[in-house]
Design goal:
Blueprint lengths: L2 E6 L3 H16 L3 E2 L8 E6 L4 H15 L2 H4 L5 E5 H7 L12 E3 L7 H9 L5 E3 L21 E5 L1 E2 L10 H5 L3 E2 L2 H13 L4 E5 L22 H10 L5 E5 L9 H8 L6 E3 L7 H6 L6 H12 L6 E8 L6 H14 L3 E6 L17 H24 L5 E9 L6 E6 L4 E5 L8 E9 L3 E10 L2
The protein binds S-adenosyl-L-homocysteine, iron/sulfur cluster and FE3-S4 cluster (F3S).
Length: 450
C-alpha cells in the first residue's frame, strides 16, 4: 500500500478540499500517513493569497528534497495541489526537477490518477481541468479535521475581483451547490453524530443555486437566508457560516439567526478598510456607511452575535487619514477579533499594476497600531465573559496543555478547561473563570447540556 502524506495551507476551502483528497485516496487504496518521512508521496495543498503563503510551498519543497531520506536516494513523489498549482500550472516544473505533478483547484478529484501516472513514469504531469460532473462533495468521519465538526461547501469560486485578490483567478467563477444536496449532506452528518457544521465558501452570501429545489418551504430575502433556515430545520445542533461578503450581506440573515437558535452567534464580515477611498480602489462594492449599517443590524440582534473581520493595511496610496478612518471604524465596530494583513501585491491582480508605495516600515507601524486597538477592545469583550456560563462543544485535548480539554462556544471563542476525555463530542456548560486575549478558561458546570 502506497503511503501519502498530505499537508494543507490556506483557507477552509483548502482544508475541505484536502479532506476530500484524503477520502478519495483512501477509497482508491492509498494509506494516509501522518509520518512525512515514511511517505511515498507528499502532497502540498497550497495558498497564494499573499506572497508569504506562496513561499511556504517553495520552502517545503526545498526541505523535502534536502531531507535525509532523499540524500540516501529514496526519493519521494511531490505533488502540488491548490491555488498555487492552479495559477502556476506547468511553470512549477521549470528550472528545478523538484515537483513531480501539479493538480489545479478543481482537479483534486483525480488525485489518484495523477499519482498513478507518476508511478508509471510520466514526467511533469499536470491537470488544471474542471471538476468531474459526479464529483463527490461529502467527506467521511475518518478524513474530517474533527469528528464533531464538518465543513460543508455551499459555493465555490468568486466573481468579485477585489483589486488586490488572487482568489477569483485561482478558484474561478462562483458556483453554488444544489440546496437539496447540501441539506442531504447535513442530515447525513447529523445522523453520524456531527454536532456542528460550517457552511463554507469565499462568499456564502452570494449563494445562488440554479433551482429552488430543497428551499421551497422556507422564506427569506435571498437564497442564502432561505438556505440558512432550511439547514436550521434539519435540527443539527450548531450551524456556522463563513465567509460573508459585506455587499451581499442581507439584513434578513440576522433575522434568520434570531429565529433559529441553532444558527450560531457569530458573523465574520471582512471589511478590509475604514476609508471609502481605499474601499473604492479595492473595488469592494461597499462603502463604510453601508458596512456600518450592517454592523448596527448585527449588534441589534436579540442574542449577542460575535463579530470578526479581516483588514488589509498599506494598500497602495493609503494615507494617514485613510488609516485613521480604519482605526475609527475598528473602534466603532468593537470586533471580537480580527485578522490584520499587510498588503501583498499579487501578480495578475488589477492592483498589481499600482505602485506598492507604502513602505514596509509603515505597513508594520499601521499593523501594530491597529492590532493594539483591536486587542484592547477584544480584551474588554473577553473580560465580559468572566463568571458567565457558556456552552462549549468539547472538540479535543488542548494542544498547549494535555491536562485540559478545548472547544468553541457558539460565538466561536476558544474555551479551555479541565475535564474527562469522556466529554469529547459533547456540548457542555462551562463557567468562565479567566480571560486571556484569545482564549477563555473555565470550569465545568455540574451537568451536561447534550
Ligand atoms: N472571501 C473573503 C476572504 C478572501 S481571502 C472576502 O471576501 O473577504 C482572506 C483575506 O485575505 C481577505 O479578507 C483579505 O483581508 C486578505 N487578502 C487577500 N488578498 C490579499 C493581499 N493581496 N494582500 C494582503 N491581504 C490579502
Ligand atoms: Fe477575494 Fe474579494 Fe473575492 Fe473575497 S470577495 S475572495 S477578497 S475577490
Ligand atoms: Fe488561499 Fe486559495 Fe484559500 S489563495 S485563501 S487557499 S482560496
Amino acid at each position: 500500500m502506497k503511503k501519502v502524506y498530505l499537508e494543507t495551507f490556506g483557507c477552509q476551502m483548502n482544508v475541505s478540499d484536502s479532506e476530500r483528497v484524503a477520502a478519495k485516496l483512501a477509497a482508491d487504496g492509498f494509506e494516509i500517513t501522518p509520518n512525512e518521512a515514511a511517505a511515498d508521496v507528499v502532497l502540498i495543498n497550497t495558498c497564494s493569497v499573499r506572497e508569504k503563503a506562496e513561499h511556504k510551498l517553495y520552502t517545503r519543497v526545498g526541505q523535502i528534497r534536502n531531507s535525509e531520506r532523499e540524500k540516501s536516494g529514496n526519493k519521494q513523489i511531490v505533488g502540488v495541489l491548490g491555488c498555487v498549482a492552479q495559477l502556476e500550472g506547468e511553470t512549477l516544473f521549470e528550472g528545478r526537477n523538484e515537483i513531480d505533478f501539479v493538480l489545479g483547484t478543481k482537479a483534486v478529484g483525480r488525485v489518484s490518477q495523477a499519482i498513478e501516472q507518476v508511478f508509471a513514469g510520466q514526467k511533469n504531469y499536470f491537470d488544471l481541468g474542471d471538476r468531474e460532473d459526479n464529483y463527490d462533495w461529502s467527506v467521511g468521519e475518518a478524513q474530517r479535521h474533527s469528528p464533531y465538526i464538518a465543513f460543508v461547501p455551499i459555493i465555490e469560486g468568486c466573481n468579485k475581483f477585489c483589486t488586490y485578490c488572487i482568489v477569483p483567478f485561482s478558484r474561478g467563477r462562483e458556483k453554488s451547490l444544489p440546496a437539496s444536496e447540501i441539506i442531504r449532506q447535513v442530515l447525513n452528518l447529523r445522523r453520524q453524530g456531527v454536532k456542528e457544521i460550517h457552511l463554507i465558501g469565499q462568499n456564502v452570501n452570494s449563494y445562488r443555486p440554479k433551482t429552488d429545489s430543497g428551499l421551497e418551504n422556507f422564506h427569506g430575502a435571498t437564497a442564502f437566508s432561505r438556505l440558512l433556515r432550511a439547514v436550521a430545520a434539519t435540527g443539527i445542533e450548531r450551524i456556522k457560516f463563513n465567509t460573508s461578503f459585506p455587499r451581499d450581506f442581507h439584513p434578513d440573515i440576522v433575522d434568520a439567526l434570531d429565529e433559529n437558535e441553532n444558527l450560531c452567534n457569530w458573523v465574520h464580515l471582512p471589511v478590509q478598510s475604514g476609508s471609502n477611498n481605499i474601499l473604492r480602489a479595492m473595488r469592494r462594492g461597499h462603502t463604510i456607511e453601508s458596512y456600518l449599517e450592517k454592523i448596527d443590524k448585527i449588534k441589534s440582534a436579540s442574542r449577542k452575535l460575535s463579530l470578526t473581520t479581516d483588514i488589509i493595511v498599506g494598500f497602495p496610496n493609503e494615507t494617514d487619514e485613510d488609516f485613521f478612518d480604519t482605526l475609527k471604524m475598528a473602534d466603532y465596530c468593537k470586533f471580537d477579533s480580527a485578522f490584520i494583513f499587510k498588503y501583498s501585491p499579487r501578480p495578475g491582480t488589477p492592483a498589481y499594476s499600482m505602485i506598492d508605495n507604502i513602505l514596509a516600515r509603515n505597513k508594520t507601524e499601521r499593523f501594530l497600531e491597529l492590532e493594539k486597538l483591536i486587542k484592547s477592545n477584544q480584551r474588554s469583550i473577553f473580560q465580559s465573559y468572566l463568571d458567565k456560563t457558556v456552552k462549549v462543544l468539547v472538540e479535543k485535548i488542548s494542544s498547549k496543555n494535555k491536562a485540559e480539554l478545548s472547544g468553541h462556544t457558539t460565538c466561536q471563542k476558544v474555551v479551555n478547561f479541565k475535564g474527562s476525555n469522556k466529554l469529547l463530542g459533547k456540548i457542555i456548560e462551562i463557567k468562565i473563570t479567566q480571560a486571556k486575549t484569545n482564549t477563555l478558561y473555565g470550569e465545568i458546570c455540574d451537568h451536561y447540556v447534550s
